[in-house]
Amino acid sequence: MLQTQNGRKIETQEFDNTKAGVKGLLESGLKKIPNIFIHEQYILEKKSDSDSDRPELSIPVIDLEGLNKGSSARREIIKKVKESCESWGFFQIVNHGIPDIVMKKVLEGVRDFHELEIEVKKQFYSRDFKKKVLYNSNFDLYQAPSVNWRDTLYLIMAPDPPKPEELPQVCREILMEYSKQVMELGQKLFELLSEALGLDPNHLNEMDCAKGLYVTAHYYPVCPEPDLTLGFSNHTDSGFLTLLLQDQIGGLQVLHKNEWVDVPFLPGALVLITNAKFKSLYHRVLPNNIGPRISVAFFFRMHLQESRNSRLYGPIKELLSEENPPIYKEVRAEEVVEYRYTKGLNGIPLLSHFKLDASSSD
């Protein structure tokens, strides 16, 4: 076993040293994925599910156009938000105000970055996640049980964004513009979520939930053996809310009532964590053999150095009672993010570590 672990460590280090990511592996002409990418648990799941008769489930879709049509239409949207968050912890939004052409250019810009020459991308390659702009493959490369088939550009876009010249030129302007529009949309969504929780519309925004914005721009190359690996392992997110833009390739799945459900191509999707009042759901990304998949996730959260000495976050006191006591500790935002980087995607729900009885969750 020791030899196997040493072999894995060497293989992982060699992969990291190339600074070429998964795309570089593919361009080297490999026909089989390296051992470090094989997900044994996923292979077992596929075998056990192969004969199952899966039910047809529809992802909740909420049309935000009604926000401009008076109070009764707004109340209906809030009702749908509440139902979707309580039953799924996830929904997709349409008519959210961000033009289709802008979202199309974001996906094109991210693809253009990842398809730059390796020598150009290498200048951004780093594992120092305190940098405001960096690129690598698998943030948890040395912690996770298996490596994912994905490369990522990471950006800290709020509250203290990088200088324009620090961003890759090929996607600079569109990511700056889109981030600005996402921040505006996020504030509206936090108002809806506040009301869905029975709180004042400004409650979550006044908690600074929309203050920080962290961006992960993913590139999932064609995979020669998609049945043996994952593009993104099962995980829950580390922020207050996640807005995801994905292309038409597909592959995103969410776990609902112990069934993995495909998420169809639509402009946006989000997740919120509120002391288990709203679900923080498991989701993952399957690799493909069709073409590169592009997705861009916008996390409303503070990052590492930006959250130093930040306020404490915990169960919303207005939602607590004797019948609904607190489940989670009060923690600083940096503690949640640091735990994610320390442990990686280890298959354990991120928030479980911060439960009041979580002394043995490690």
TrEMBL record:
SUPFAM superfamilies in UniProt: Clavaminate synthase-like
Family annotation (PROSITE patterns): FE2OG_OXY
Glycosyltransferase keyword on record: no
Fe2OG dioxygenase domain location: 211-302
Keyword annotations: Iron, Metal-binding, Oxidoreductase
PANTHER family with a match to the protein in the record: 1-AMINOCYCLOPROPANE-1-CARBOXYLATE OXIDASE HOMOLOG 1-LIKE (PTHR10209:SF841), OXIDOREDUCTASE, 2OG-FE II OXYGENASE FAMILY PROTEIN (PTHR10209)
Protein family: Belongs to the iron/ascorbate-dependent oxidoreductase family.
Protein name: Fe2OG dioxygenase domain-containing protein
Source organism of this protein record: Penstemon davidsonii
Biological classification of the source: Eukaryota, Viridiplantae, Streptophyta, Embryophyta, Tracheophyta
